[in-house]
TrEMBL record, chain B:
Belongs to the binding-protein-dependent transport system permease family. One of its GO terms (biological process) is transmembrane transport. It is found in: Cell membrane. This is ABC transporter permease. InterPro entries: MetI-like (IPR000515), MetI-like_sf (IPR035906). It comes from the Bacteria. It comes from Dubosiella newyorkensis. The chain crosses the membrane at residues 7-28, 68-92, 104-125, 137-154, 179-201, 239-260.
Amino acid sequence: MEKQNWKAFLYLLPALVFLGVFLVYPLIDVFIYSFEEGYSSASQSYFGIGLFNYEYVLHDPYFKQALINTFVLVIVTVPISTGIALLISLALNSVKKLRSFLQTIYFLPYVTNTIAVGMVFMVLFKETPYSQGVVNMLIQWVHLSPVDFMEGPWWAKMFVLCFYTIWIVMPFKILILTSALASVDEQYYNVAKIDGTSSSRIFFRITLPMISPSLFYLVITGFIGAFKAYSDAVALFGTNLNAAGMNTMVGYVFDMLYRDSGGYPSYASAAAIILFAIILTITIINLLVSKKHVHYN
Amino acid sequence: MKSKKKVLVWLLLAIWAIIVLFPFYWMVLTSLKEYGAYNAEYIPQFFTLAPTFENYIQAFTDVPLGKYLLNTLFFAIVTTGLMVFVTILAAFAFARMDFKGKNVLFTLFLALMMIPGELVVITNFVTITELDLRNTFLGLILPSVTSVFYIYLLRENFAQVPDQLYFAAKVDGTSDWRYLWRVMVPICMPTLVTITILKVIECWNLYIWPSLITDDPKYFLVSNGIQQIRESGFGRANIPAMMAAVVAVSVPLIVLFLIFRKQIMSGVAQGGTKG
């Protein structure tokens, strides 16, 4: 067939322009920004080239707080959400009645506006003028002492953030795992049954290896997603996350760029690059680990 | 033994259903409570005997919630429309046409999928500011148009259309352009519907970009609009009116989801990554 160089180029042109201007150029530019010292958006000038921006960011106490918050969020939410999603998917897979009804319900958080529903969580955990809020009421039913979740100690706020994050990410995980479980060939189970294999052995020797690619896919995307957490924290604690002690790394980047403390694209760029260096490292580790343990047909 | 396990399974499923649904219930319930009655509760009430629509009236009159909803609708439709158009053209070139450097370019496209949006937002913010497009719809829309993933998804679908159709059309003297819109697009409609809905959802929930690029409430979308309402809208304490606004923001998406449940869930399973 004849080459259609020019015609194809025309078809690709709109996509190339959009991607070039808003994806490729910014990617290069963000590295340049991060090395320009003392860049000012007003005069568009800078003093010199160097690592000062990185140094500044790494010594900023707000950055440290954001780093700690983000790591805690990742370490808590990824294993818990994946674990619960696996349990629920196994349960869903074992019932026939109401399955698609429940799947629909479980998927609802995915199609909600993170900011809007986050405010509902704030209301659930927040004290009202004369009561300590719904969640505290439930806590008191089981005879524990109430906690000021929204304005109290750091760990209480962190708990709310983790809880909301898990609630938000569950639909995706349940969806992926239920379809993975449903695609395991019945024959394996039938053979195992004839052999009289115990159900725990079936789970560890058949089910788990068969769904391990999906499971690792979820772990990897889960890590990436949790490292990029931001909107959920804004929804719960408002835009001034530094004051609430609840900032995340992405939040730190945008605070540097804009809002009251903003106007420093260089610091923002340096912080963003540090964040994605961390994400890249963790993803590579994940992939190396998965190579050893994941069963790909 | 067997029945005990069954009880546990149903218990787990029921508990998770309650955890998922309870916030929605509480949001609707609170939005129907009267402001005074809500604040006077010593014990949070799980139902109300005197529902009021006062909060909804307040949500649409005291703050420009209607405007935010219209803005978001306009933004979502234009962005999605542009995205679908650009995506169809690019996917067609990759699936159907033969040109120099095709494989290299397609590989580069795939590599672009790995660029995190957060990294490029910084420069885009500076670009849009320098173009003087802050607080405009153009500034909101332009950087949100392209999605490499959707180009990939549609290309895969286009590639499945049998070659014979194309050659038959060529024999009849049909141009590529006509063939694309008269044959390819109708055949791949299900994928296009999925892509469209996923993009609309994405637009509806977009928060970071609009919050950076607009500080004039005239151009707020629902996400930063509702954030604004929370921080300075009805006075911080008017939770029922705030919940009415939250319901108004959530209902359109939930309705969309219930209509297109199958397409949305299969689309997300193929490549959604929120989580």
